[in-house]
TrEMBL record:
Name used for this protein in its record: Anti-sigma-W factor RsiW
Transmembrane segments: none
Lineage: Bacteria, Bacillati, Bacillota, Bacilli, Bacillales
Domain of life: Bacteria
InterPro entries: Anti_sigma_zinc_sf (IPR041916), Znf_put (IPR027383)
Family classification: Belongs to the zinc-associated anti-sigma factor (ZAS) superfamily. Anti-sigma-W factor family.
One of the Pfam families matching this protein, by short name: zf-HC2
Putative zinc-finger domain ranges (all copies): 9-39
């Protein structure tokens, strides 16, 4: 379209989808009366929409969904992930327990100095 406004393209779609208000329809048709390019584009869209509406819509059997779901491969989820998704509270507690355990183990290795500063024992320290 050579028309600079994208607004009219949006209006065309709204009119063809029967979602436009009377004011929007009037505004579009006034523009189409003066713009040949937009009028040709609108007529092409209108013909395309009519062709799509005429297409036959296939009717699926009632058991279609069930048949497709039965043919899907079995779910391959890891046992821990499946357990974790079934028990979110326990999973969260377990995830928090590991770092807290490491903190507690580290705290047992601490030594207080003369000025109540916390000193860490190294593996080779003999104080």
């Amino acid at each position: 379209m050579s028309c600079s406004s994208v607004k009219y393209l949006s209006l065309m779609n709204k009119v063809l989808d029967q979602e436009a208000t009377d004011q929007e329809k009037q505004q579009l048709f006034e523009h189409l009366a003066s713009c040949d390019t937009c009028r040709i584009h609108f007529n092409e869209l209108k013909e395309s929409t009519e062709l799509l509406r005429r297409l036959a819509h296939p009717q699926l059997p009632a058991v279609f969904t069930k048949t497709v779901l039965e043919q899907l491969p079995p779910e391959k989820r890891h046992v821990i992930r499946r357990w974790g998704s079934n028990h979110p509270v326990l999973t969260t507690m377990a995830i928090c327990a590991v770092p807290m355990s490491l903190v507690m183990i580290g705290a047992r290795r601490q030594v207080h100095g003369k000025n109540n500063y916390v000193l860490l024992k190294g593996l080779g320290d003999q104080t």
